[in-house]
Amino acid sequence: MPRLSRQNIDRRIKEDSIAVTEDAASTGKRSLKFTDAPGLAPVWLPLLQFAPGYTSGTVRISFDLRHREGAQDYIECRTSGHPLRTEPSIRFDKGVIDARLNPVQTRPKPGAWTRVTITARMGVGTCQWNMTPPDEPLPEPANLNCDKGWTECGWIGFVSTADANYKWWIDSLVITRGE
C-alpha cells in the first residue's frame, strides 16, 4: 500500500478537536472523534487532511462513519494548485446527503455506524460510492459523473462544517491507489 506523503489536523480553539477516543468504535476499541464548536473562523474547522500525491490510477477511500442527528460535514478529494478540481465529494447536511451535487436516497441512521466506500479513477469522469451498515454486504455502488479534468488526488479532506457543538466519528479508514 502506498504511504501517504503528509497528514495534517487543523483546529483553532480548545473546544474543537480531532482525537483518538475510546467512547465509540465500529471495530476494536478506538475511533477518530471530530468535535466541532460554534464560532470557528473559518467554519470548515476542524479539518483532517491527507496529501497522497496520486497522479494516476484509481483512488479508493473506505471508512466507517458515525453521525448524530444534524450532521454537517463532508469528505472530498481535490487537486493541488490551480485550477482546483474537486472529485469525488460527499456532503452530509442535516439529514441530506449530496454526492457531487446529486441528492442521495441512502441515509445513515443517526448514532449507528455506516460503512462508506468511494472509488474514483482519475481522468475518466466517473466515480462510484456506496454506504451500508458495516456488518452488511455492500450494495451495488452508485455511479456519479465526475470532472474528467480530475487527474490528481493531491488532497483528501474530512471536514466538519457545523457552527455548533457537534461530534462525529470515523473508524477503519483505508486510502489506497490501484492501477
| CATH class type | Mainly Beta
Q: Strands of the biggest beta sheet: in what spatial order?
A: 1-4-13-6-7-8-9
Tell me the count of domains: 1
Q: Ranges with pLDDT <50 over ≥5 residues?
A: 1-7
3D shape: globular
Question: Which value, in Å, is the CA radius of gyration?
Answer: 15 Å
Q: What is the H-and-E element order?
A: EEEEEEEEEEEEEE
Amino- and carboxy-terminal Cα gap? 12 Å
- Helix- and strand-based class? mainly beta
Note down, in words, how this protein is organized:
The protein has 179 residues and is mainly beta. It has one domain: Jelly Rolls. Helix content is 0%, strand content 50%. The chain has no helices and 14 strands. The protein has strands at 7-10, 17-21, 31-36, 47-50, 58-66, 72-78, 86-93, 96-99, 102-104, 113-121, 126-132, 142-145, 155-160, 166-178. The strands form two sheets. It has a seven-stranded antiparallel sheet with strand order 1-4-13-6-7-8-9, with no helix packed on it. A seven-stranded antiparallel sheet has the order 2-3-14-5-10-11-12, with no helix packed on it. It is globular, with a radius of gyration of 15 Å. Mean pLDDT is 80; it is low at 1-7.
